[in-house]
Each structure stands twice: as C-alpha cells, then as structure tokens.
User: What shape does this take?
Amino acid sequence: MNFKAELVACFGQPVAENPTGVMQEAAFAAAGLNWRYLTVEVPPAGLSDAVRGARAMGFQGFNCTIPHKVAVVPFLDELSKEAKIIGAVNTVRREGSRFIGENTDGKGFLRGLTQDAQMDPAGKRVVLLGAGGAARAIATELLLAGVAELIVVNRSVDRVAPMVDDLKPYGPIRYVPWRVHYEVRPETDLLINATSLGLYPNVDWMPDVDLSRAQCLVADAVFNPPVTKFLAAAQARGLKTLDGLTMLVYQGVIGFEMWTGVKPDEGVMKRTLLDAMVKS
Ligand SMILES: NC(=O)c1ccc[n+]([C@@H]2O[C@H](COP(=O)([O-])OP(=O)(O)OC[C@H]3O[C@@H](n4cnc5c(N)ncnc54)[C@H](OP(=O)(O)O)[C@@H]3O)[C@@H](O)[C@H]2O)c1
Assistant: This one.
C-alpha cells in the first residue's frame, strides 16, 4: 500500500484562473499516476519560502507563472541551456535533491509547429510580433532550430533592442520598430503573434499587420479565445493557422514528461483544457 501522492504545483499571483492544474490532474488520472497538482497563490515576498517548502516536502517540481518566472532563478540549483538564454523559468523539475529550471513555452510552440502544423523551422523566414516573455521563449527555440531569418516586430524599441542583442549569438535575428501597420511579405514562411493583443476580454483587438500579400502559416500565442480575431482574419484569407491553445497544451505535455518520465494522453489534456475554458 502507498497512500502518498507525488506533488507538483503552480506558484503565481494571481493564479486562481490558471487552468493548468485541471489539465495536468486529468493527465495524471489517465496515466494511472497518484500525483497531485496544487494551484498555489504565492506573493513575491513569499517565493523563496515557497521554493524551500517545495524542497522540504519533496515536490517533484512546479510551474512558475506571473510574477515569478524571472524572480525564481536565484532559488534554483541549475538552469537548462534554453532557460539561461531566455532568462526565465516556467517549469522546475527535480533531479535528486536539485531543482532544475526549464522553460517549456517555446518548446511547446515548436512541438505544435512540427507535430500539428507539420513545419520544420530549419531554413524558414519568420516574423515574430512582440518582445515579451512568450516572444523571447519562442525566438530562442526558433533560433536554436536553425531558422534562416527572424524579424522581431515590436512597439517599444526599449524592449525589443535588448532582446535582439541577447539572442544575436544564437542566429540571424533583427528587429523592426512597429510604427504603422507591418506588411508581411510573400517570402515569409511563418508569422507569429506573441503580443497579448486579442487576449480575453479584449477579443476585438488584433495586431496591425497587412496580410494582403502573405502566403505564410499564421500562429498565435494567445490561447483565450482559441480562435483569435487575428487567426480568423488569416483563415479568411485562406492562410493556414496554429492556435495558442496548442502551444499551451504542449508546454504542459513537456512539463508532464519532464516530471514523470511518462508520455501523457495529449487528447485528454486538450479536451480538459477546452472544457475548463468553456466553463470559466
Ligand atoms: N499559449 C501559451 O502557452 C502561452 C504561453 C505564454 C504566454 N502566452 C500568451 O502570450 C501573450 C504574451 O505574453 P507575455 O508573457 O510575453 O507578455 P508580456 O511579457 O507582457 O509582453 C507583451 C507583449 O505584447 C506587446 N503589446 C501589448 N499591448 C500591445 C499593443 N496595444 N500594441 C502592440 N503591442 C502590444 C508588448 O509590446 P511592448 O513591448 O511595446 O509593450 C509586448 O511585446 C499573452 O497573451 C499570453 O497569454 C501564451
């Protein structure tokens, strides 16, 4: 008999509306694992104690969300290569008594790109809208995957210039300040919205881009709603699309694999997440 469950968690503030726990618990149950995922409100001043508590209680790992993705770094024992480049951690896994910081946001995007959209990013020309945390994670993975060109388009130069400087050692990246609407050229293979434009409740907002000559795959990091106004506009032009819900599910799938060493039922995770979003 073993009545002890293995524990993982999400530390964030606010965290109550984060649906990751519902998705992970459904996957644990489907895999027959006695694991629990706790969604825990942790204020910035409590983060160090929360990580010490997780160590003391033998947690297998945890997710970090706003505002802890950068702040958690000093409390960890090691970072993966990607998390080091990105400078932020969204998933922590345990190796013996050590906590290793990982970043699965960009990896989740890449898995959706290769598995669902069937696009190998190597040699592709990419336009990335945004220079926040999600954009950094996606840009890092795309550069490591060998894209031919990565143009980052962002409103504030103050944010995009340091990001491009940091990532230059890893591949052909440059930025364009977002002044008026950005015209996507026919030779672009992949266009990604990694800004928060279109995120619920501002569902009528969308990036100011001209798609009239575009022939690319259009992806969105925004997952709520799953079909954003931006993706709907691309679909209306006959362009293929990849939604942010796919990225969210795959970053969770990768976290699950890192923690348990088991491949989860991806269908269960996606359906549970969609259900949770419809109900909320
Ligand atoms: N699907 C997933 O798994 C996943 C994972 C992580 C994040 N996300 C989503 O990705 C989006 C970005 O998240 P984040 O963490 O990167 O946010 P963030 O760090 O706050 O960055 C926000 C980005 O959006 C831009 N932006 C915001 N309002 C804008 C406007 N009115 N016009 C032009 N640009 C605007 C910002 O530009 P400035 O620099 O000019 O302010 C910045 O580049 C969110 O919707 C989040 O939910 C999805």
Remarks:
- The domain at 6-104+246-279 is CATH 3.40.50.10860 (Rossmann fold).
- The chain has a mean pLDDT of 96.
